[in-house]
Amino acid sequence: MKKHSYSFINLMYGKLWGMFFGSLVIMTLLTLVNFVDVVSPMFNDDAKMKFTVRGDVALMQDNWKPISAEEMVLKGNASYAEPTVLMKSSSFVRLDYSDISKGLTITNISIMLLSIASTWIWLVLLYQLVKIVKSIRENRVFERKNIKRIKRIGVVFLAFPILARLKDLLFSQAVAESLEIPGYTVIKEKGFWIFPSIISLEVLLGFLIMLLIFLLAQVFAYGMMLKTENDLTV
Amino acid sequence: MPIIVNLDVMMAKRKMSLNELSDKVGVTLSNLSILKTGKAKAVRFSTLEAICKALDCQPGEVLEWEE
User: pLDDT (tens digit, 9 = 90+) per residue, A33-43?
Assistant: First the structure.
């Protein structure tokens, strides 16, 4: 068997393992910090959630006028560093909050779980990539396992924007839950144009990328078929 | 498998071992065993020619078709 000597592949292999283990350490730490942030308010009343919430909320009002910070009322335990009206397009207002609320509300737990999931899914992609590069190095590219790996990478490309979109929606929900502006009705952000709220432009793009990668997997399956036929020809 | 490879029968008739045949034909042992166990999907004409030459026989004696 002839051994390929792709210097690029050899270079990539070491770098990818480094990236994988680096990400593993960073993400474990991030997960721990995230967990402590959410769980500690259970035991300590003064502790607050640390993450900044930047959510888009829609304000129902016919005659829109700029809203100052004094007009906003934060409900319940919520507090803020500096609420700022960042952008206004049609009736949407983007508000910036930090330390939005404390405690284990369903929204907060979902945000935590989603941020954990969206970081760990990156590791899935890296691991599959490392495995594929390893198989190229060992001169066994056309494996049934590799086809599965390529498909998994495709699914990650769809899952990533969906998770990000869900997180955005939950952030909007968190802002809408704890914000009150007299004279306005605060509702959480609506979807992108006519699509349901989960589908954003990124999700559509991710879906297309997934389809392309699935096509690549089909090409690999054909290559595998040719290779077995070639291997079994005496 | 409708096509049967009678390689072991011919080898026994000529009193030739697998190693010897592999040397004469110029095909690796693993490929010969693929052929012998009937896992092969195709046989090159050049391989068939070399086998017939080494065993001094006709292709019909090595290959057989069965319903």
Answer: 766 665 555 55
Indicate the number of domains in chain A: 1
Say yes or no for a CB contact (<8 Å) between A234 and B39.
no
Chain A residues lying within 8 Å of B32, measured CB to CB: 234
pLDDT, tens digit (0-9, with 9 covering 90-100), for A169-178:
777 777 777 6
Domain that holds residue A77: 3-233
Cβ-based neighbours of A232, under 8 Å, separated by 6 or more: B34, B39, B40, B41, B42
- Give a three-class secondary structure readout of B15-55: CCCHHHHHHHHCCCHHHHHHHHCCCCCECCHHHHHHHHHHH
Q: Is B44 on the interface with A (CB under 8 A)?
A: yes
The pTM score is: 0.69
Tokens of A99: 């330390």
Rg (CA), chain B: 11
